[in-house]
Amino acid sequence: MSKEPTGSTQLWNEDLAPTTAAQRSWRWYHFAALWVGMVMCIPAYTLSASLIEGGMSGWQAVLTVFLANAIVLLPMLAIGHAGTKYGIPYAVLARSSFGTTGARLPALMRAIVACGWYGIQTWFGGQMIYTLLGVMMGGEIGGAKIAGLGINGAQLACFLAFWGIQFWYIVHGMDAIRKLETYTAPLKILICFVLLGWVYNKAGGFGDLLSAPSQFVEGGKKAGQFWSAFWPSLTAMVGFWATLALNIPDFTRFARSQRDQVLGQSVGLPVPMGLLAMMAVIVTSATVVLYGKAIWDPVDLSSRMTGVAVLVALLILLIDTVSVNLAANLVGPAYDFSSLAPRLISYKTGGYITASIAILMMPWKILESTQGYIFTWLIGYSALLGPIAGILIIDYYMVRKTELDVAQLYREDGGYSYGNGWNTAALVAFVVGVVPNIPGFLNAAFPSSFPGVADGFKTIYTYAWFVGIAISALVYGVLMKGKALPAMRAAAQP
Known about the structure:
Blueprint: H1 28-39, H2 42-53, H3 58-86, H4 90-93, H5 95-98, H6 104-137, H7 153-203, H8 226-240, H9 242-247, H10 249-252, H11 258-268, H12 270-291, H13 298-303, H14 308-329, H15 331-340, H16 347-360, H17 363-370, H18 374-399, H19 424-434, H20 438-445, H21 455-462, H22 464-479
Helix pairs in contact: 1-7, 1-11, 1-14, 2-3, 2-12, 3-8, 3-11, 3-12, 3-18, 6-7, 6-14, 6-15, 6-16, 6-17, 6-18, 7-12, 7-14, 7-16, 8-18, 15-16, 18-19, 18-22, 19-22, 20-21
Pfam family, one: Transp_cyt_pur
Membrane topology: Multi-pass membrane protein
InterPro entries: NCS1 (IPR012681), Pur-cyt_permease (IPR001248), Uracil/uridine/allantoin_perm (IPR045225)
């Protein structure tokens, strides 16, 4: 398919159009580097802490993180296939199942979640700058809090400074992000080994945290309760990357071949994520020896270092947060916002919108109100995104047999317009997939307001992502049986 519009300009722009052969420059190591870059982030580092605090041993936490990422890799590879084959982003792929107008619903859902994460990661980056300046100046900086904002002037300035660093990459586009991920990934791996060496020498060993038994063993505080803790933890870990499982075509559309995207993602996601969890447990184990308590926050740990080590550590964390935030939380919503009004909103404009919303959301306030419910948040939005993934996969593999008429995806009166641009089957399947999880979510998020939720709904919510993807896939498959439209191999790539 050419770069010239062949359908409605309400559905097409150059950024949403299928990628050309010249744009398909990503090899397997680019995808591996992309994932290494995204995996090595502060929230991923601290995931093990939540599992160990829940009663798991170090090894149980590491294996849970690894298993969750091996599971979420499957829908990523499945949905990513369409991006490589046809060169289309997630927001366009969703048109084949939800309709040319209806696709804006899953695109907007994905975008809103990403905006929240983008703002939170930007706040983390700003706090690193704030911490670095405080260490260099020998004390707290910034003075009194600003009325209405709840943070002081220095914190606000550091937040906006980090926001500005990321804005440069929005202006310079996807290729600048690819280069950042590729060049910084080896550095992050090196830093991990340096950090391990530092704590080993400093603490005279790695401590006892990794070898400590879980609280679920006989005689422990939570004896016999392992599975009741494991399943919600696994669901939350899956939810951590559930957003990327949807919009992975935004990256795989630049792949040179299916082998490149499959191999790169398989190498780059589950193993590095498991290894990062192991490193977090080992390093934190050593902090018990060094400081008398477990320090899971790498920013806090960096601030306790001395000399040039503080500067190096926090600069690495800054680079890390920039690369993660741009790849995981900027690219997807930029395309998603563009798909809402392609004639008016380009990819860059979508990025500007994402960055602007990140400021308006005041992410430090989000953290104040939801930090205690981080698992509720992770599981909660996985309950929304799981059904969308189920619908996309069934539509692409079972209904379409991986055959799409790409030109029709850009036509308001084409084969994917259904009834006024909406596919009722997808909407019904989505709602049916989400509804069973609503009571459990309300009880988990607002226990005092919804105390009487039945145990059955609480159990269902424990498996929110799995329940949502399974129910929506089944319902959509039944409703769409025999309704597939003939598709041509237009713009298909090997």
